[in-house]
Design goal:
mainly alpha
Length: about 130
Amino acid sequence: MLKESIICVVIVVAIVFGNNVTQSYTKETVSELTSELIILREDMTNQEMDHEKAQKEIKEIYEQWEERHDKLAYFIEHDELEKVETGLISVKSYIESKQYEDSIDELDKSIFILQHIEDKYAFNLQNIF
């Protein structure tokens, strides 16, 4: 009986620890990408943005996403990650074709999806039940 209780406690502690690690990585990733996307969006809406600068910024954001995508795929649904990747690729293609209004719409969608991922995988009572 004592042996089984110890095993159960160890498993619960491992689950809580693993959740904290994955949650902090998800929050870090979402906050970094969201802040970069918000900055890009503000630059595109406030002034006439230089086409080369916009391409450079979205390329850097996409590279940052690619670095983190593989680790996120271990514990987040692939459908959610594909939505973000599709949005970033759409933004990239709209910027390349100089359709800035459409790229702003896609930026807003990508920001929303990233924030949704963070909320969906947060450890709280609403997500448990």
